[in-house]
């Protein structure tokens, strides 16, 4: 198994790398990152890792990473929003634009599986009304519109341009650093989804979905069980 992991310098991304190596100890992990020095030293020194340095605009470097021969893309990329709702995220949906270029490369090199972080701002036909989630999305849209717009655009480009991919949009609520990996996966308004999820649970669910394939072309909302 060969993974391309995006967003691997953030907390959730580091956990994705660790969980991928835990579940698939013989795997090769290719990391595409702007600042490789932010990856923990023990991972940088791990012989199973290949690091390709590049930004969202470095498409030649991105292609160099994809053409190393990958089976699955795992992404923890997402806008950074502070606990107060503040964000310096650009207004031109840079992650969604990057995803569009990435999907072109996945088609070119015949890579089918793409599992990406998403949020409740991306809707699903199976969702039901939920005043809690409606309030959360409304607040994000109001105080951090550039981040909201990029998340929505990310979902749109994966579903449209990547409609031939085996994609999964892993929608997450408020993320914590708790140790629990227990997850409930469903849809907004189903009476079981909560509003808290540990980053470890996000990583465990995302890597687990590679083998489970329960949500191919789906957008589960997940929370701690």
TrEMBL record:
Annotated InterPro entries: NAD(P)-bd_dom, NAD(P)-bd_dom_sf, Polyketide_Oxido-like
Q: Per its UniProt record, what SUPFAM superfamilies does this chain match?
A: NAD(P)-binding Rossmann-fold domains (SSF51735)
Record keywords: Transmembrane helix included? no
The alphabetical list of record keywords is: Signal
Q: Which residues cross the membrane?
A: none
**Stored Pfam families:** NAD_binding_10
Instruction: List the GO molecular function terms.
Output: biliverdin reductase [NAD(P)H] activity; riboflavin reductase (NADPH) activity
Question: Which residues constitute the signal peptide according to the record?
Answer: 1-16
What range(s) does the NAD(P)-binding domain occupy?
Answer: 7-208
Protein family: Belongs to the avfA family.
Q: What is this protein called?
A: NAD(P)-binding domain-containing protein
Q: Which organism is it from?
A: Psilocybe cyanescens
């Amino acid at each position: 198994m060969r993974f391309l992991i995006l967003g691997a310098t953030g907390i959730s991304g580091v956990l994705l790398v660790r969980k991928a190596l835990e579940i698939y100890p013989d795997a090769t992990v290719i990391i595409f990152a702007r600042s490789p020095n932010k990856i923990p030293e023990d991972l940088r020194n791990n012989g199973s890792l290949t690091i390709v340095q590049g930004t969202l605009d470095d498409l030649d470097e991105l292609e160099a990473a994809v053409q190393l021969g990958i089976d699955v893309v795992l992404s923890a990329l997402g806008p950074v929003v502070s606990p107060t709702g503040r964000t310096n995220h650009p207004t031109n949906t840079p992650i969604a634009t990057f995803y569009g270029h990435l999907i072109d490369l996945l088609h070119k090199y015949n890579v089918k599986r793409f599992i990406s972080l998403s949020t409740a701002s991306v809707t699903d036909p199976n969702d039901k009304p939920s005043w809690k989630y409606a309030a959360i999305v409304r607040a994000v849209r109001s105080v951090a519109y550039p981040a909201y717009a990029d998340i929505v655009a990310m979902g749109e480009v994966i579903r449209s341009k990547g409609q031939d991919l085996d994609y999964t949009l892993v929608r997450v609520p408020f993320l914590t650093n708790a140790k629990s990996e227990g997850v409930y996966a469903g849809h907004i308004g189903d009476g079981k989804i909560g509003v808290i999820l540990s980053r470890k649970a996000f990583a465990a669910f995302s890597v687990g979905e590679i083998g489970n394939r329960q949500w191919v072309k789906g957008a589960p909302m997940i929370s701690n069980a």
